[in-house]
Write a structure and sequence with these properties.
Blueprint lengths: L1 E13 L8 H5 L1 E18 L4 E6 L4 E6 L11 H14 L7 E7 L9 H17 L5 H15 L7 H8 L2 E6 L5 E5 L4 H9 L1 E5 L6 H13 L3 H22 L3 H16 L8 H12 L4 E4 L7 E5 L4 H12 L3 E3 L9 E5 L2
Parallel strand pairs: 3-5
Antiparallel strand pairs: 1-2, 1-12, 2-5, 2-6, 3-4, 6-7, 8-10, 8-11, 9-10
């Protein structure tokens, strides 16, 4: 048998950055996000040859290692090694496992859709399917967070792991002591379809290290930099505002609110936007988009825009003619992490 999983990537609609410690611990964070039909996939093929093989298709990386109960945290696939070490220690009584793990993503890494966290969730999902691990949705999301943020010391927030695990449209609240509340929003399918139809997803053809931006945000909070903290308060308030607009089916107002949210977000840290990103944004607005923002920490990756009616075709053409990025066809999906097994 082989064991598979897939976990959806998410768009960070509003509140991004307020899920990052220490802000969320001190003030509480709030995030609105939605998952899309772009996925991280993981496949585990058990072996009996004393080898551990990691393959990451997107980057063309293969690592073949000797069987061990704990792998050294070195090389390019730290996430895979860290998850393996934790699984063996926590669930397999330190007995090593021989297998081949293959991962693939529908999007480039470092693109602002929560890539590393979604990969982590998909890998844990594949191990859950293989080893029949007793993990619920909250367990998987928190487990992925603990491995990434605590064991591997990767900077970042908490929303991505929960979005990938739960799926759908969620309003999430974050507090001290790892308290997370996921509030699934019941959005009528017609509204979800219209919202998705009017959303343009654009890859800026740039990738960035989100950890640098997140570390700058965290430093600003620690140093009690008033302008940054006030911007984060406003970003959080916009999450509540946009949630209410969505629930009331006021989608055009939601599009306009995205513009306000983006202006506040740029004040959280200097590296969130760049002159080129600002120019792309203005091009989209000039051609009819009501608002938009960078998805994720910022600095590059994916942007999304709310374009009423059929405006997104005009905006897409303008962006493609002027810049080197790529339009992604996107739909909003309600299913989160999915796992299954099949015969080889």
């Amino acid at each position: 048998m082989i064991f598979r999983s897939k976990a959806p990537f998410r768009l960070g609609i509003a509140g991004g950055g307020t899920d990052v410690s220490p802000y969320s611990d001190i003030y509480g964070g709030a995030i609105l996000n939605v998952t899309v039909n772009l996925y991280s996939y993981a496949t585990i093929k058990p072996l009996n040859n004393g080898k551990i093989i990691f393959k990451h298709i997107n980057e063309g990386i293969t690592e073949t290692l000797e069987l061990s109960e704990e792998l050294p945290l070195e090389g390019q696939l730290l996430l895979q090694r860290g998850i393996y070490n934790s699984i063996v220690r926590r669930f397999n009584r330190n007995v090593p496992l021989s297998f081949e793990l293959t991962t693939y993503m529908d999007v480039p890494s470092g693109s602002g859709l929560g890539t590393s966290s979604t990969v982590a969730v998909s890998i844990i999902g594949a191990f859950k399917e293989w080893l029949k691990l007793p993990l619920g949705e909250y367990d998987i999301a928190q487990y992925a967070y603990d491995i990434e943020r605590k064991e591997l010391q990767m900077a970042g927030g908490k929303q991505d792991q929960y979005a990938a695990t739960f799926g759908g449209v969620n309003f999430m609240e974050f507090y001290a002591d790892n308290k997370v509340i996921v509030n699934p929003l019941r959005i009528h399918r017609e509204i979800l379809n219209e919202w998705g139809h009017n959303t343009l997803l654009y890859f800026t053809d740039t990738r960035r290290k989100s950890s640098r931006i997140i570390e700058e945000q965290s430093r600003n909070v620690v140093k009690k930099k008033e302008s940054s903290i006030e911007a984060m308060h406003k970003v959080k308030s916009e999450a509540y505002r946009i949630k209410n607009l969505l629930l009331k089916n006021e989608l055009n107002e939601l599009g306009i609110a995205l513009n306000d949210s983006w202006e506040y977000k740029k004040q959280m840290a200097k590296s969130i936007s760049t002159p080129e990103i600002d120019e792309m944004y203005e091009t989209a607005i000039l051609h009819g988009a009501l608002g938009g923002k960078i998805s994720g920490a910022g600095g590059g990756g994916f942007m999304f825009f709310y374009c009423p009616g059929t405006v997104k075709y005009v905006v897409a053409k303008a962006l493609e003619e002027k810049y080197s990025g790529k339009i992604y066809k996107v739909e909003f999906v309600e299913q989160g992490l999915t796992t299954w097994s099949t015969e080889e």
